[in-house]
Protein 1
Amino acid sequence: MALRVAVAGASGYAGGEVLRLLLGHPEIEIGALTGGSNAGARFGTLQPHLLPLADRVLEPTTPEVLAGHDIVFLGLPHGQSAAVAEALGEDVLVVDCGADFRLKDAATWEKFYGSPHAGTWPYGLPELPGHRAALKGTKRIAVPGCYPTAVSLALFPAYAAKLAEPEAVIVAASGTSGAGKAVKAHLLGSEVMGSMSPYGVGGGHRHTPEMAQNLGPVAGEPVTVSFTPTLAPMPRGILATCSAKAKPGVTAEALRAAYQEALAGEPFVHLLPEGQWPQTSSVYGSNAALIQVALDEHAGRIIAISAIDNLVKGTAGGAVQSMNIALGLPEELGLPMNGVAP
Ligand SMILES: NC(=O)C1=CN([C@@H]2O[C@H](COP(=O)(O)OP(=O)(O)OC[C@H]3O[C@@H](n4cnc5c(N)ncnc54)[C@H](OP(=O)(O)O)[C@@H]3O)[C@@H](O)[C@H]2O)C=CC1
Ligand SMILES: CC(=O)N[C@@H](CCC(=O)OP(=O)(O)O)C(=O)O
């Protein structure tokens, strides 16, 4: 029998992408679609690309509407997931695309999000050492932020093999959908088109501690992260350029071997052949993460680059992948491996 899924925040980018993927998932039946200000609207006016759901109506996000489902995805603004999740039974699988349950340290949460810490759930990045096992059978999943997904996948093999010093410098470009659907002045077409711009410069971006939380345990020592996000004139995609000083004696051969070993058998994370570099257009609409690594011998630095679709591997695809693991289903079920090109 199909598992019945509700999506809260179904009118948003994250919720819409979860639905696009779940409509192609053989074990899932779509139940309630809920939102906030658009409740009452015909779904086809909100997500016109999701034709099978066009005649549905967006409902309010209440415990009554979300009751009676096997799985509930939350694609709500930060800080709103905890109250909704609390009203859902412990037997319901809750997959939170927001940030509420990602960070372990309450003081760090309060510093970066400015609200009380709700708690910590198993973290939905199965490729990180130990995480896949922790997701099996869980009823609660915290889906990672899109930048931490791109960055952690690019750097964890170097840290797992103890090849990198614990100070990472990251510059990543994101498509505008990362900022959500609400209209923001700096995201208007005429402001974004033909321009790239940095934001959150100087260590203030809330994804910085999430990256450090992911990489530190892999490295076996705290990793300091310097992260600069930039906004790129494209709707989707993240290209993360990550670098760290190489430990003494590291060779290009050892580095490549470490990445081959760490990523071997991963269904979605691919180390590209030498000389080929990740680009966002290759992962548009796909749950793949493309990785390449090089040793800059002159500077003594490891350079690791990743490309993901922020709405797929960076949100909804990662969420469905983790859901599959939690339910004991094949990890790849319902997830696109191919991008859309050109
Ligand atoms: N965009 C991305 O790349 C990523 C997003 N995320 C996370 O996913 C979550 C959603 O982000 P995103 O989809 O981009 O945001 P959007 O702004 O596109 O969507 C927000 C959704 O939340 C609903 N909503 C807003 N306020 C309320 C409320 N008070 N009560 C009930 N529903 C409400 C909206 O409904 P309505 O339309 O009715 O107002 C809409 O469905 C965020 O926590 C974000 O951090 C995570 C990773 C990546
Ligand atoms: C381009 C852009 O604005 N991106 C968002 C990140 C989106 C995301 O994945 O993050 P959360 O789930 O933590 O919101 C930002 O920098 O705030």
Protein 2
Amino acid sequence: MEATGPPAKMVDRREELTPMLSQYFDLTQEYDDALVLFQVGDFYELFCEAAEAAARTLEITLTKREDSTGTYPMAGVPIDNVAPYVETLLDAGYRVAIADQVQDPSEATGVVERAVTQVVTPGTVVDEELLGAGNTYVASVVREADRSEASNRAGSGTTREATDADDPDHRERFAVAFVDVSTGEFRVTSGPRDVVQDELDRLAPAEVVTARGEFDRDSPDDASTDGNDDDAPHGFDVRGMHTPFRASAFDGDDARETLSGYVPTPDALFERPAELQAAGGLLAYAEYTQGVDSGGLEYISRVQRYDPREGMRVDATALRSLEVFENREGGDAHTLLGVLDTTSCALGRRELTHWLRRPLLDRERIAARQDAVEELADRAFAREEARDLLRDVYDIERLVTRVSRGRANARDLRALKDTLDVIPELKAALGDCECDPLRERREALDELADVRGLVGRAIVEEPPIEVTEGGVIADGYDDDLDDLRAAEREGREWVADLEAGERERTGIDSLKVGYNEVHGYYIEVTNPNLDRVPDDYTRRQTLKNSERFYTPELKQREDEILGASERADTREYHLFTEVRDEVAAEAERVQRVASVLAELDVLCTLADVAVDRNYVRPAFGEEGIHVEGGRHPVVETTEPRFVPNDADLRERNVAVITGPNMSGKSTYMRQIALVQLLAQVGSFVPADRARLPVVDRIFTRVGASDDIAGGASTFMREMRELTSILHDATEDSLVLLDEVGRGTSTADGRAIAWAVTEFLHDEVGATTLFATHYHELTRIAESRERIRNFHFTIDRSGDEVTFLHSVVEGASEASYGVEVAQLAGVPGTVIDRSRDLIDDGLPGDAGSTRTTESPSAATNDATAEPAARTNGYGEHTDSHTTRSDDLSSGTDDRQITLDEPTAGEAVADEPSAAGGSTLEAEIRDLNIASMTPLEALTWLHERQREVQR
Ligand SMILES: Nc1ncnc2c1ncn2[C@@H]1O[C@H](COP(=O)(O)OP(=O)(O)OP(=O)(O)O)[C@@H](O)[C@H]1O
């Protein structure tokens, strides 16, 4: 960003700068991709362009600094409340380098020494205040060497013959590593582009690091920032910030060297060199941001390589359309996570997210989780007790990270102890649980009695936040400390007795003994009594109405007290860091306990949800999906009269689902996918009964109808996603298609929908749910044995329709678009007119020179499609190649042709019928009543482009 790097004004005056600004200049040069927050006393200051940018972004005052070399814009934020400012800067796309004074100003001879102690970036925040409850990842991506550029899968057509791109040996491959610096979780994997993209989608890193120089077009030193497609690391689609980092860190030797600070034999851990490079480069970046040297993040000891194929693949599109973590508006209300997340502690909350992100493929692992959930569901008392205890569990995964990094305070240690105190009780609560997964976890719960005992003995029950000012270490833990405290106590007692003694000795009743920070202990005598002051009193301070004195003995005692107190504080700090280091040495054990606690929390939660919401344990078999009385886990919580529905797709069917708008098609499809996903997570499912296959991947393609503004580009995206489904789905996949084809003309859309359905049935064999308003699609079932039609029923009495939300076998009769419009409150005049038009045909039909179909052909026939009723253009245009008899039944005069032009395009090719301008003729001939809003908008968009050309 332009506000980072050395300020232009200072570059010009580099040699003249004062020592302090010179120091600032050097740091801005060294950390040239960050805003440097430069400590000056109680403030972090920024200068020149950086100050202006910060003032704008943070809405703080821009001031000036003047010295002999000039005037510099300056802005500052208070040190003791810096977190919110840093957060705002991160949100605005900046990285922030914190340059602290690392020398006591009183000891500095010249300018105080300063150093960057931390670079805060979106992916590497560790401050509690800046961290959300979930994981914050930073990822690194490395492209494998010696791979030729592979073809783009999205463009590789819909045939499933093997191509170069399919051949595992010829596809472009990447390695990707992820770290959560706040917990120490570290994972590495590699694979072809789509697999790595899935991993990036799944873990949604806040930042992606790549070797500098690879993507920086203008200057190799230019640090790119987020949000710009041009900066997409290796062409991956990532939401987070993109950070180019020192390329050498990703070199094999350097990466190995970095890794050796964390794992004993790096080479043995990875399967491919690029994985080692990605992991080493990422660790080097993590060290750089945390201001530590090689090996300085020792709590990252769990560098794990994983295989993405171990889990069900659920890409970002599927996660979004199934609203697993986020609803369609991007919020977290009414999501699957929201329904399930009644976890007791932060550890469990993060673990649940992990589980939902990566449903399992391994039947045994699924069964193990199910066994645990089942037993916990049955043992209500044990479950409730365990959940209660887990509520007292702190986020010890992050806590132990702070311990390892020397950032934990005494309260953190005490919180760790409080958590460890829970473990014996938790083990007892689960003592009767018999199934292997629960027994194993119970046994894996290390009580860490040593750590618990140490902290219990060493740290007082309610320690202060500061660890340098005493009051942290418990009495009896250390003899030296006890002696110092005794000396201090004794001195204070002596002082406490002094007042009474001196009053007696001097006869001054108003004499007082006091203490202040500046002058220490004193004896205060009011002016009228000054003549009675004994000789051994020395004057210390004169006030308006009194004088303050000390005696040689008081002075001596004061020195003893203060000396003892100071030495006690120092000793305490020393002891505290010793304890902290001892705990840090057990970090791995704590992390293991944390992960068992996390799993237990999730298992208890899933059991609780199962009981609370009446879920059942699904069985797994070899046949396709068979659900009885299935429910949508989220919609059933908001819809008081949710109607359960069956889904019998045992032959791995392609289900074509029709029904009026709003009847429940999307909900139904999503509920089947969510039931499947939950089942593979190991959870029970919202149904009366479910027998399911293990699905390798869930694909979703939701039509463009909701996204009119996106226009043509949305359709393009839709088709790209469709291509990837057709290419990547297997017979073990579950495919959801919701109104695919809606983003283009009705004719094209229907043709595509038809062909896609055939392809999925004939070539792919994936279990498919296809919700559509193209009713003619239901006819495919006549010629394909595994294609089945389902539709949603409504109850119609007079003009009123009631949605029954229940699915039945067979094709739907109509769309009831007008009835839905009426329900939505469209004015009665419009509704009546629509009904007339349905009955009588559209005026445009009669006037059109192309109309070959009689409007009356579609009248009063509930089975007629909107398209057939209103369009019916019989003419053939070059742009549509699918033959009409592919789709039509050919038996009646409601024959549907696929050669129908889009509202605009075919007309535009024709000369004006009325002899006016082409545009005029087009407008006149437009059959507006038959167009969807999207078609109208697309038409308008095309005309605009023509005019603009
Ligand atoms: N099984 C059900 N029981 C009760 N209410 C339901 C059920 N399914 C859906 N609904 C309600 O109906 C609304 C519409 O459902 P949904 O979006 O699934 O309809 P749709 O047929 O896909 O509509 P469209 O074709 O317009 O996209 C939902 O928001 C929900 O409130």
Protein 3
Amino acid sequence: MNQYDLIVVGSGPAGRRAAIQAAKLDKKVLVIEQGRRVGGVSVHTGTIPSKTLRETALNLSGWRERGFYGKAYRVKQEISADDLRRRLLITLDHEVEVLEHQFARNRVQHMRGKASFVSPDTLEIQKDDNDVVQVSAKSILLAVGTRPFRPDYMPFDGRSVIDSDELLEMQNLPRSLVVIGAGVIGIEYATIFSALDTAVTVIDPKATMLDFIDKEIVEDFTYQLRDRNMKLMLGQKAEKVEHMPDGKVQVTVDSGRRIITDMVLFAAGRMGATDTLNLAAAGLEADSRGRLRVNPETFETSVPGIFAAGDVVGFPSLASTSMEQGRIAARVAVGAIAKEPQKYFPYGIYSVPEISTVGLTEEEMKERGIPYECGIARFRETSRGHIMGLDSGMLKLIFSMKTRRLLGVHIIGETATELVHIGQAVLNLKGTVEYFVENTFNYPTLAEAYKIAGLDAWNRMGEAPKDESKAAPAPAEKAATPAAKTKADDKKAAAK
Ligand SMILES: Cc1cc2nc3c(=O)[nH]c(=O)nc-3n(C[C@H](O)[C@H](O)[C@H](O)COP(=O)(O)OP(=O)(O)OC[C@H]3O[C@@H](n4cnc5c(N)ncnc54)[C@H](O)[C@@H]3O)c2cc1C
Ligand SMILES: NC(=O)c1ccc[n+]([C@@H]2O[C@H](COP(=O)([O-])OP(=O)(O)OC[C@H]3O[C@@H](n4cnc5c(N)ncnc54)[C@H](O)[C@@H]3O)[C@@H](O)[C@H]2O)c1
């Protein structure tokens, strides 16, 4: 039987970062992946495909230019499913190639097959030809990710009632779409299709959406979606979904209302992919959503030597955080020094328009009793915004009145997911409102919005007291320091 220092199950963001980190520390590493190609959900059905689809949709529809040329402007009049798929295949091929090359040059071994436990340090790998091999390791990392939640009552057919993994296989662009589930996946796809002129209805039993985002940003977002005729049926339940003889689908909502649509996308959450791992043989148990509990600093499970990272451990379930979790888990697994993950990380929601945020929301500031001031800049106030023809988009900064520190950054609009990193750096380096007032920003850029929002807040906050650098944080504000952020994180997780 082959013996390794570290075996990683799953080649998504968590698995690949972990494998390469351990290999860089001269460890013998094996990655087991059941999929036809390495990359995980992130490369094949999640992050990369959805973002490629978004980019293609925005380019072909001429969406970004409509501020100038009017709402009727289109780069391509008839956009087909094939148009969308073409760019997808090229991007995915490239991603896989880069990853395979990384594994090869770092001497990470990789085996195709489905892994399950035989004992806490030994796995059985079932290959496609039904051949079975056993491998063992000093440490094992489970980076198996998730799969879509597919309840029995939903009549999935892979064509007109689909989950988010199946969406990429669609043959025709729907003229109408009902999205069930207003989570991040549902909202991203709903707005992408709306940009392609599909008539979109979003249904969710919860009365609000994206609760972890600052309310003012969600209000702006909701206004923009309604302004372009998207139907948001929040606080309503899709009770019945039926295939009609003409190939359409009928969705009956609990109010009795019926919607006839070309396609239904069911996006009501995901389940940890742990059911085939034979966890019992390792002494492990998953929760009701298939997720594993780990020590949040080391990512070790309750069984010494078995680690778990990425979506399978639950919140925040992002490719970005999964990579960092995988790296930390691998370092701990092979006995290297590892720091716990940074508590303030950004969220990027690639809806149309995009949203990005880091730190505390205005609602969290109130809950914690931290006196604060906000600064707001609209993209249309920036020269870059004029050049780009933007009529929407805003940046909101939240500062503590006591210490003047930046505690929250919330952005909606073009390039929000890139712009957020400026705020993230200032926030994590404990910068104050003076950073934005006293520094010069490139002109004309959208980043200038930071300057405008900083000045907006500063005008209301007044001059800094002379010895502000020595100002002690108020007790309530101490709770906003990274060490105590976990509570807010838990709340965000609960809100999801
Ligand atoms: C539609 C969509 C859009 C998203 N967009 C974003 C985004 O914009 N930004 C962002 O940060 N995140 C995004 N995410 C989330 C992101 O994709 C996940 O956080 C990330 O993929 C999780 O990585 P992971 O390493 O946990 O595992 P995954 O990427 O889920 O990969 C797990 C791998 O393990 C394999 N596996 C499972 N069980 C076994 C087994 N028994 N044996 C062998 N192999 C096994 C699977 O085949 C899979 O390849 C999106 C997700 C979806 C679904
Ligand atoms: N840009 C990004 O970072 C990005 C993009 C996509 C996905 N993701 C990650 O993927 C994960 C999964 O996303 P998701 O959107 O599938 O899940 P989610 O848990 O975020 O949202 C699910 C939504 O479905 C609703 N819902 C739950 N059960 C339902 C039911 N039976 N019928 C109808 N609606 C129901 C919920 O009220 C919720 O609004 C998220 O945790 C997210 O972090 C991230």
Protein 4
Amino acid sequence: MSDKIEKNGDKGHTAQTGYVLVLSDATAQAEYLASSILHHAEEKQGEPLRIALSGGSTPKRLYELLGSSEYSDRMPWDKIHLFFGDERMVPHTDSDSNFHMVKESLLAHIDIPFRNVHPMPVLDDPAKAAEIYQAELQAIYGSKTLEKGKPLFDIVLLGLGGDGHTASLFPGTPVLQEKDKWVSWSQPSDAPHKRMTLTYPAIASSRFVMFVVSGESKAQIIREVRDEDKPYPSAAIKTEGELHWILDRAAGGE
Ligand SMILES: O=C(O)[C@H](O)[C@@H](O)[C@H](O)[C@H](O)COP(=O)(O)O
């Protein structure tokens, strides 16, 4: 247990109060994140490190670095459990699948025990798939109720969409109102697939939330979320721990 949680108590961080770190470019951003994850893994001193991975394209560079010779042999993969923050309801072999992206960029290159990788199941019935994943999380957590000071995840990596979504918490979808379930699903109006996603309560049960955002195209939405607190889904992200915006200069400016 990081003493940071005890200091923060239940204050925690929001998307607006989180720390901001701007790295020179996407490569430096990936290097910072990889070294940070290695540090957190080492800090756990043999206890499992639970990471919820983000989908989308931005984190691929990080995953490729973690799977590279520079990191793959240094990470205690037998103590790291990889979860997913969200998933598209397509087969894991589909190029639109977040699992497919993580498998190609990371899993295919590391020696991680099969039991340590927790893909979101894909079923025709997304509600059933979400129930299955939630049950898996609850079994690992050891309770069906999230408790303050006992975070479900050590690290939750999140991306940021141009419409202010994060994970698969899209504007105007009912999952934004979910206060009890840990996993739910949505049918975003402007996304081709049904989606499964961690909910706000599950994401909040974390030691660290790291928004990983890069590119000039995201600079405006970051300002609107952080500084103007506009009612985007990503603006409502909270954690009982620390929230960090890990940006490249193109997205984060000076
Ligand atoms: O499944 C997904 O697509 C992600 O979880 C989603 O929330 C993503 O992080 C943002 O859409 C940003 O995507 P890019 O990194 O591709 O800009």
